[in-house]
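Bench notes, bay 3.
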Amino acid sequence: MARPEEQDRASLAASLGSTVRRLREGRGWTQQDLADRLYVTPSRVAQVELATDPPNEALAQDLDRVLDAGDELNVAWFHMNRLGHPSWERPYVDLERRACRMRGYAPQLVPGILQTAGYAAALFSVVRPGISDEVLKRLVEARTSRQSLLGGRDPLHLWAVLDETILMRPFGDDESVMRDQLSHLLLTAAQPNVELQILPLEAGHHGMMDGPVTLLEFPDGPGVAYLAGTRGGDLAESPHTVKQYAMIYDRLIFNSLSPEESRDLIRSTLKERYGCPPPPPPPNDT
């Protein structure tokens, strides 16, 4: 028997699919007509409408645009996808979407918002033994969808400090997992709204050795600190506590490699440990 959480997600997927069909038929379009505008197959449109294979975020955005849904489909997708996150993580994910600035320290794992699909899948496979392929797919999609916050017209500003051990530790059953992940870090760090620094081992002990910490700032309210783990997390909202974590974070930045030095270290790790040249920088928009 499906868990209530899975039933809720299936219900939301069915509602999204029904909305797509209503909007499509309202325009007098066949599934082929819609598929042609989306550059997908008619069977993919049918899967969405029947909720047998709900859309990912990119397809949901295309559907909303092509059908001129006024964000109705984007909002529906968000509520459906929200259930892909563990229940303890959802309050944080909601806050993350509202934030204008994020600062975070990661001692052992690449931060969720920067994880590739391969890295996330390898992580979920070991922290949730026996996980089904369907649940794994949903968790990975929910995790990687958070990266969309770093793009768009008003992107989230991210400042991330990663411990050097993250670069050194093999991850996944194949070297390609870390090759892809490190390449992704380099490409993301090239974005103007992203700063990435590495805290070297030589920095010694510091005030965030207990675990990962994320500081969120909002345009319309006080900030929060989030202390996360693989199976739980705690929000700290006290201004005094948030200020303490911010002070510790500032010291971490001071003791970390500069952004350019950090990118050089990732490049050398790719080359020396994985025999892989770094990815070319993204093309300039100018």
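Next record in the batch:
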Amino acid sequence: MLGVKLVSENLVLEFGNTRWKLGSVDREYQVTLVGSGHDLAQLTDLILHVAPTFVGVASVAPPQTVLDLRHALADSGVELLEASPEQGFGITLCYVDPSRLGVDRWLTLLAARYHGANQAAQSHAIIDAGTAVTLDVLNANGHHRGGWIAPGFRLMQESLIQKSTRLRVSDNVPDAILGEGTEAAIHLGCQASLQGFAHTAIQSAEEALGSPPDCLWFTGGDSGLINKKALQIAAKTQVIERPNLVLEGLAQWLSFKSPPRSF
């Protein structure tokens, strides 16, 4: 660990399956979202406007996406540092080959491990509801116990309509328990699956850890579809909702990797 504190000019960038998110990082590793979108030209303009020294990058998009950004920034003096899962940083991964673990999942582990000033030994369960919905469990000693991957809310909907020309989905959120039309039934059914994932994930995390997790994290664009009040969460467990948890983990990783700077 280099003990390097970031300055506000440094940025963190997440390339997801469907869009990018860009954040700025202050000296306490706190992330402020700068923007999000799909257009690479817009992203390039945002980065050039800030003119950072470093941009930490985490990508689950095709490799060409990062290559295109490097080309666009080639003459700017901005250095891209791309994160990839590895052993260390206070975390022991259960994967024999760390490169097989998604970088987004790894960074949420890193963010949870080093969250805020309270870095005492704590156990964590992390539910990330995005294109896929994932669970990762970290014990108090920093050992990754493993996790789950399942289709996310929108992927569940898409899999249904791709198999039938008679089915459609709608962006309207039903105000009901049971759907009175096909679109509402699909929405509520997929949401129930997401809810069931979270419910069973909490039980399984407790079983794997031997006790309820100290911290239960929710992140991802569809985490708002999970009714946290309906979940059976132990009284000792702190529930933390962090929409940009991957970016926060990336900021922490960048603090380890970027060269020391004086202020």
